[in-house]
Amino acid sequence: MNMNPHEDVAEVLVTAEEIARRTEELARTLERDYAGRPLKMVCILKGAVPFAADLMRAMNHPVALDFMAVSSYGASTKSSGVVRLLNDLDESIEGQDVLIVEDIVDTGLTLKYLRENLSARGPRSLRVAVLLDKRERRLVDVEVEYVGFRIPDRFVVGYGLDYAGFYRNLPYVGVLKPSVYEEAP
Ligand code: 5GP
Prior knowledge:
The chain is α/β, with parallel strands linked by helices. The protein has one domain (16-151): Rossmann fold (3-Layer(aba) Sandwich), CATH 3.40.50.2020. Helix content is 26%, strand content 30%. It contains five helices and eight strands. It has helices spanning 16-33, 49-58, 75-78, 109-119, 178-183, and strands at 9-14, 39-45, 63-72, 83-87, 97-105, 125-133, 146-150, 173-176. Helix 2 (49-58) links the parallel strand 2 (39-45) and strand 3 (63-72). Helix 1 (16-33) crosses helix 2. The model has no long low-confidence stretch (mean pLDDT 95). Bound molecules: guanosine-5'-monophosphate (5GP). Guanosine-5'-monophosphate binds next to strand 5 and helix 4.
């Protein structure tokens, strides 16, 4: 791992400017779709932190924020759809208009779990916003109402997305150099 994370990046897939522009567009859409209704954003830790923070600040709208943390297991259990709840919301979402904000939808298993878990708590409405969508990897059908960008099937980091806990602070979404993985223990 380089001490300058930018030097570990092989290719930028989505620039900071593209993210900022798309976030503004999504904010306008959300303002329209939730007109007259306050919005409860549920930010999924840790990857969705930058996206949720920028999206909420782009909105001229009453927005309340809560957090949830989940972990999907390794490759074998992922296909079984096992998702573990690590940290629950602080507050009830009953009767509220809830938007799950997630970094990326890949197989869809995490969002399927989150949709089922949260819809059981009686929100007035429940929708999902993701920054990135790797559609070709989907294993389960899950509705995603708001998508920032569709990306190809590559492992990406940056703007919240990590590799081994790092690179979340890159302001863009990119792909790491193969040498980074070769160094891994
Ligand atoms: P899913 O349950 O849809 O397969 O996976 C969603 C989770 O897998 C994401 O929240 C994220 O943590 C992780 N993930 C999927 N694709 C990528 C990727 O390309 N890069 C990173 N860093 N994480 C990913």
